[in-house]
Amino acid sequence: MGSESRTRYLVFALRIRKLTDSLITLVEEGRYPRDLNDGLKAVLASLAGSGERTRVRSLRDRGSFGHYENALTIGEVVKAQDKAALIQRLKTVMGARTPSTQRASALEAIDFFDAIENRALYHYNHPSPRTVAHK
Amino acid sequence: MSTFSETVRQESAALYRFVDSVIHRCTEIHEYPVYTPSSEEFRKYIRKLGSETKRFLKGFPASAEKDKDTARSKRRKLSTIRSGWENLHEYLQAALEADTLRVPTPLLFAIQDQINQLEDLKDLRFTVFHSDQVNYLQLPPGTVKEAADELADVTKGTRFPLRLGLIGMPYSQSDGFLLNCLLAHEMGHVAYQEVYSADVTTRVERTLEALEDEVGVLDDQEVTFSLDTLKYWTEEIFCDLFAICLIGPAYSFALIELTGATLLADSPDNNVDMFYSFMEYHPAEIARFHVHLMLHKKLGWWPEMAKISSPYVDVLTVSATKSANVRIEATTIPESVGDERFLKCFWQIATWLVKFVPKQELCIGPHKEPSGAVRCYL
Lengths: 135, 378
Known about the structure:
The structure holds 2 protein chains of 2 kinds.
Chain A: H1 3-29, H2 36-49, H3 68-79, H4 83-95, H5 99-125
Chain B: H1 4-27, H2 37-64, H3 68-96, H4 105-116, E1 125-131, H5 142-154, E2 164-170, H6 177-180, H7 183-215, H8 220-247, H9 250-259, E3 277-278, H10 285-299, H11 302-305, H12 311-322, E4 327-328, H13 339-356, H14 372-377
Helix pairs in contact in B: 1-2, 1-3, 2-3, 3-5, 7-8, 7-13, 8-10, 8-13, 9-12, 10-12, 10-13
C-alpha cells in the first residue's frame, strides 16, 4: 500500500474521532454541537451504501467519507453488526424526542465510531495492498 | 492494579513526552542552518501545534474522568493523536534536512514566481523536504496537510497554514538541474489540491457516470475504488501538463531521464517492460509521454523539438504508437468494468486535460518566453 492510501486511513480515523468528540459533548453536556449533523449525515450515507450497488453521483452525499479506504473500513465494521440497527441509532441521535433516548443512542453510536476508528488505525499501522475483490 | 485515573495520567504523560521530543527538534535551531521563509513557517507551525497538543494533554486526565460512560472512548483518542504525531514525525526531520544549502533555492523561487503570476495561485508557497527515495514522483505530501488539519481539530489546535504546500525531492539532488525540473510537477500537486481539483474531479465523475450507464451500477467498494484510482491517475497527468506549461520540454526530458525510459526508443512494441504498466497511483510512463507529446504539439513546441537528435525526443515520438500497448498492473479493476473500458476512461480524461491545463495561462512556449525570475534563471 502506498503511503497516500495509508495516510487516508489516518485522516479517516481522525475525522471519525472528531465526530465522536461531538457525540461525547452531547452525552456529557446535553448540548448538540453545530457540526454534528453534517458528519452524521455523511456517515449515514456511507452506511446505507455499504455493500450495496452505489451510483457515482450518490458518493457526493458521503462528503469527505467518499474514499475507497472509508468504504472498506465501514464495510468491515458493519459486517459484524446489524446495519439497519446502526442506521436507526444514528437517526435517533439526530432526531430523538427525549434527551434520555438521545443520550442512549449517542452512547451506542460512540461504540460504533470507536470500532471504525480502531479499524482505520489498524489499516494505518498494518498496510496491505489497495485492491478490490473480484465478485 | 492501576486505577483508571492513574492509567490515563500515565498514558497522557507518555504522549506528552513524545510530542515534546518531536517539537524540541524545531526549537534547537538558531543561526544555522538557514531555511527559506516557507520552511520556517512549516517549522513554526509544527512547534505551535505541538505546544497546543501538550496543553490539550495537560487537561486530558481530568476531562477523561468526567463521565464513566464516555471514559473508555476518550482514552482511545490518545492512540489516534499519537498516530497523527507519528505521521508528522516522518516529515519533520526530512523538512529540517532541507535547508537553503541543500535545496535548489533559486530554481524553487523562480518556478514559484511563475506560478504566483496566476491570480488563483498568487499566494501559493512551497516548503521542501528531503526523501531517501530517488523518484520525486512517489512522494505523497498532500494528505499530510489533511492529517495535520484533523489532528489540530481534535486537539483544539491550529490548522495547517493556508496555501502552504509540501514538496519532496531526493536528498542528493540539490545540484541536479535537469532532474530538479521535476519539482514543477510536485508544485503542480499543490496547485491541483488548492485550486483545480474540484473542476477536474467533476470531469472524472462524469466520465465514470458514462461508464456506469454502459456496464451498470457498481457496488460501493468497486465504485469508490474506481473513482479514486482514476483521480490518482488524472492528478498525475494534470501535474505533468502543469509542469510542461511552466518550464517547457525540459520537464519531459527530465522524466525520461529519471525513469530510464530511453530504453523504449528501440524496444519491440509488445514489450512487457515496466513502462507499459498502469500502477495503483501512476499511469504507465509510455501513456504519460504520449500525453506530453499531445501538449507539446498543442503549444507549438513539437516542430522545434522534432529537429533535435536526442533519445528523449525519440521516446516522445514512439509514445504515440506504443501507448496502445499499455496494461493495468498492481491493482485490480472491477471485473464488470474490465481493463480496456477503464483505460478508455483514462484516455478521455487525459485528452480533455490537454485542453484544460493550458487554459490556466501559465504556459511558456516557443512563441511566449518565460517571464520574471524563470527568465533570469534560464
